[in-house]
Amino acid sequence: MDRIGIIMNGVTGRMGTHQHLERSIVAIRRQGGVQLRDGRRVLPDPVLLGRNPQKLEALARKYEVERWSTSLDECLSDPRNTIYFDAQATTLRTAAVRAAITAGKNIYCEKPLGGDFKEAMELARMAAAAGIKHGIVQDKLFLPGLLKLQQVIQNGVLGRILSVRGEFGYWVFEDGAQRPSWNYRKEHGGGLILDMFPHWQYLLENIFGRVTAVSCMAATHIPERVDEAGATYAATADDAVYATFELEGGVIVQINSSWCTRVHRDELLILQVDGDLGSAVAGLRTCEVQHQATTPRALWNPDTPDPINYMESWQKVPATTSVENAFKIQWEMYLRYVLENAPFPHDFLQAARGLQIVEAGLRSWKERKWQDVPPLTLPS
Ligand SMILES: NC(=O)c1ccc[n+]([C@@H]2O[C@H](COP(=O)([O-])OP(=O)(O)OC[C@H]3O[C@@H](n4cnc5c(N)ncnc54)[C@H](O)[C@@H]3O)[C@@H](O)[C@H]2O)c1
């Protein structure tokens, strides 16, 4: 069977180990590789790259991977490796991706593409000029709940979409056991705007329409946290964001993202979409709809218990395809793009667009003003 060499950098991290190695690349290897149109199967041949030899060796053993390395240069100069993948902490991405472009590798990487819009545009320009195949992780598009939502919208069930309301987050305890401490340090690439706006950008623009303006207010609600070594540090990054987006066509979107909220919803992300013919409520795995014909006629009367059970008139949307891991779906798409030129719209320009929206959000918060977001193209 043919093999495709993939440098996997940052593979000891949360995302690197669980989503990209175990549930994507190892899962693709265990299913016998990726299937191409001509019937061939190609097996991913990863090299696990990082700083800590013990951790890398243990991962390689656990997942039956033959190759690991602590040298980016050695991996980049090995002609067996045609793809560079990056899931390192955010501030480390730009330099490594730049080196991989210079080495002529195809590149797939975690969001955000670099620490700011300027860095992301530089990488998008470099990648286009080098003629490599580049891609960015946009996993939420492939989650079962959001796939069902896309299907409902495409089928016209909601009619004209008026607004979207999103609620994302959970309580992150101050003790540092839930998420890496760099997430709460601005100087180390932390902050919720930088973390979540890239996700909101691709979800909104792929499902509802182009973002034309952003208004954003954020806060650092919890000023002190404890790191992985048990030391207390000052949190310097935003840990809650309250944002409004205006979309082409007039759709109004409000999304709260917070690491300082306690969950009173079925899933950690919920999007309610209201249209003139119906509404949908989508989470990571589920989606429910309510049609105009089954919408209860609510009457405002706080003086007596409400006779209507509002939850009863929603219908669950069934899954129409088998439920696969969202990261694995996108990995297979990217591998087919590299191997047989299959379509793959999730490129570095899209990644830079995510950072353009991040920048607009940060500026809006700082200046306390709406920010228009012009369309983004690569200068020729
Ligand atoms: N798509 C998603 O849903 C999603 C979710 C979470 C995180 N992410 C992104 O994935 C990336 C990694 O996030 P994570 O939560 O896995 O972080 P993590 O801290 O768990 O992992 C970071 C990786 O970078 C490496 N690293 C950290 N500091 C380093 C240094 N100084 N030198 C060399 N290597 C270093 C670590 O060893 C580890 O392998 C981030 O860019 C983040 O934005 C994406």
Overview of this protein structure:
The chain has helices spanning 14-30, 53-62, 72-77, 93-102, 117-130, 144-154, 192-207, 326-340, 348-367; strands at residues 2-9, 34-35, 41-49, 67-69, 81-86, 106-109, 134-136, 161-169, 211-219, 224-226, 232-234, 240-247, 252-258, 269-275, 278-282, 287-291, 315-316, 371-372. It has 380 residues and is of the alpha/beta class. The chain has two domains: 2-139 and 326-347, Rossmann fold; 141-324 and 359-363, Dihydrodipicolinate Reductase, domain 2 (2-Layer Sandwich), CATH 3.30.360.10. It starts with a strand and ends in an 8-residue tail after the last strand. The structure holds nicotinamide-adenine-dinucleotide. Residues 10, 12-16, 50-51, 87-90, 92, 110-111, 137, 139, 180, 195 line the site of nicotinamide-adenine-dinucleotide.
